[in-house]
């Protein structure tokens, strides 16, 4: 089938349009998702198409509108709640952790919470400390929710439908640097599998594991490494909770070396979890210590050169890969 | 088990208006007495280490649960707090299932996963106790939003306290509910203390109903020790909600006779203050009113009381004998696994 040129933003919008068309129970709500079109333009035009009841502007009350989404989900609706950014989701963390993630268990299985919560994450746009967090690892810590990170056009287009079909809460992280990424997208064919990690580039010498906004940087690093004769395999985690251990370990068993790249701070990061699992499950496959490339332990600074120095970059990933490959078991 | 005495009374075809009123009063008295006897037993069971965790007693506040929930029907939904035994029982959650939950047994209304603070019964649209102060308020708004979007007739009643009135979640949700015209009854149980902090030390303006009204919804204060006043107010509010007038707020002025929880030594209140409020015991007030109206005598009161005590006795016996969840099921009900799907409403 013919592909079409689209952007990450348009792919997300098309997924929303499809969901709103397919199921009366689906509605979108969040700050400025209506006429404004969403802070990042994802929902532009949807209020004109579906009306203000189903594309619902909310007051600036993150806890109330996220909690309202959770309550509506319990009652059988399929809300998609847009939290403008992960930074503001902290104001709703009580609702996500103490209600969405716990209600099924606390009620002895009586309640389902089929809510989808979307939010922008990440740094790289000189927005300084309060608008540059990457807290996916915090959310991935919580039993009872699924955490997805679409890094490609296909995943931007395809992850919403399975998220809405999931009877449990799903949090989707959209990295702010990806919205303008454009490329060719094939038409949707059947439901997307969101449980598996994906090998985005095959290689033999080292496995680079990443997700979301770091994927383009890691692919660039793999290009750099290829020029030096190092063949890097790039694994896109896609689902941050649950993690697809099988795909991770299969790759590590082939390359015997692993570097985890994560825009979160290193201490207590998702990269730490992935690294620990590799050590637990594939220790004897390893020819080198598992490497990690994370953000520096500093509030993300405004100045461009400082921000770039604080975040994982392709050159730093390549350096970590070289170090791993330099180790001979 | 019989729950008939907790249902709203309907005038019988062959009865007189007075008979109907007397029966209705008996139902309300029975509802309050059951809560009282249940919780008195909880104190004994807690002291005997049969039940653990946090246990927040409702004794003294029974008129609120009995009165407000009498104004609701089965299509309506209820969201409660961690002080919820009264709400659950008045909503008709079986006494057996509530007691078994206190015991942490598999037959508990939350299969022993919730305990005293997290009682759930979706078949009665009882959406549980929330142990984060104010945390249930947005949830209730969501249930109300779903009702409104589907054009259903139901109202959602959300209980919370004067402490929760200081939480952002109350104020955010009050604004949102008015903005969206949600069918939501915000039932504020003002028992004058946020744990140990008195109302005047927590709120710069202690007239909570006035502050709620400032959001643009009907709001008024009610004598929360008078079950008939509570019921009347709740009925009027629910009528307004069903007529599409959006959310209502009731400040139910009440008092807990016991400490905040079983852990609380209750050092922050005057004994004289507690004794004063005990003269306004809601069970006693209704009992007296019924006696003076000739609706109740010693024998009928004793009979009613015995029925409540028996029901609690049976619930305790059943909970004692009930099985616990197997440890092998520890990880159930976290995420959905095949064959483990609840019926979506």
Structure, briefly:
The complex is a heterodimer of chains A (329) and B (345). Chain A has 329 residues and is α/β, with parallel strands linked by helices.
Strand order of the largest sheet of chain B: 2-1-3-4-8-7
The gross shape of chain A turns out to be globular
- Per CATH, the class of chain B reads Alpha Beta
Strand percentage of chain A lies at: 15-25%
Can you give the mean pLDDT of chain B?
93
Main sheet strand line-up of chain A? 3-2-4-5-7-6-12
Name the helicity range of chain B. Answer: 40-55%
Which structural category fits the helices and strands of chain B?
alpha/beta
| SSE pattern of chain A | EHEHEHEHHHEHEHHEEEEHEEHEHEHH
* Radius of gyration computed on alpha carbons of chain A: 20 Å
Helix content of chain A: 25-40%
Low-confidence stretches of chain A: none
Number of domains of chain B: 1
Distance between the termini of chain A: 46 Å
Radius of gyration of chain B: 20 Å
CATH homolog superfamily of the largest domain in chain A? Thiamin diphosphate (ThDP)-binding fold, Pyr/PP domains
Structural category of chain A is: alpha/beta
**How many strand segments of chain B?**
8
Per CATH, the architecture of chain B is: 3-Layer(aba) Sandwich
The best one-word shape of chain B is: globular
Number of β-strand runs of chain A: 14
Note down, in words, how this protein is organized:
The complex is a heterodimer of chains A (329) and B (345). Chain A is of the alpha/beta class and 329 residues long. Chain A has helices spanning 8-22, 46-50, 62-74, 86-89, 93-100, 103-106, 136-140, 153-158, 160-165, 215-227, 245-255, 270-282, 304-310, 314-326; strands at residues 4-7, 26-30, 55-57, 78-85, 116-121, 146-148, 170-175, 182-185, 198-201, 206-210, 232-236, 239-241, 258-265, 291-295. Chain A has two domains: 4-185, Thiamin diphosphate (ThDP)-binding fold, Pyr/PP domains (Rossmann fold), CATH 3.40.50.970; 198-326, Rossmann fold. Chain A is 37% helix and 21% strand. Chain A has a seven-stranded mixed sheet, sandwiched between helices. A five-stranded mixed sheet of chain A has the order 9-11-10-13-14, sandwiched between helices. Chain A has a two-stranded antiparallel ribbon with strand order 1-8. In chain A, helix 3 (62-74) packs parallel to helix 5 (93-100), helix 10 (215-227) crosses helix 14 and helix 11 (245-255) packs across helix 12 (270-282). The termini of chain A are far apart. Chain B is an alpha/beta fold. Chain B has a single domain, classed as Thiamin diphosphate (ThDP)-binding fold, Pyr/PP domains (Rossmann fold, 3-Layer(aba) Sandwich), CATH 3.40.50.970. Chain B has helices at 17-47, 62-70, 85-90, 95-102, 136-150, 168-180, 199-202, 208-213, 227-242, 271-278, 282-292, 298-321; strands at 77-81, 126-130, 156-161, 184-190, 193-194, 197-198, 219-223, 248-253. In chain B, strands 2-1-3-4-8-7 form a six-stranded parallel sheet, with helices on both faces. The longest helix of chain B is centred in the first third of the chain and has 31 residues, at 17-47. Chain B is globular and about 50 Å long. Residues 1-5 and 338-345 of chain B have low confidence and may be disordered. Chain A binds chain B through residues 27, 53, 58-59, 61, 63-77, 79, 94-95, 98-99, 103-112, 114, 143-144, 146, 166-168, and chain B through 77, 79, 108-114, 118, 120-122, 127-128, 130, 132, 135, 137-147, 149, 168-169, 172-173, 175-176, 179, 332-336, 340-342, 344-345.
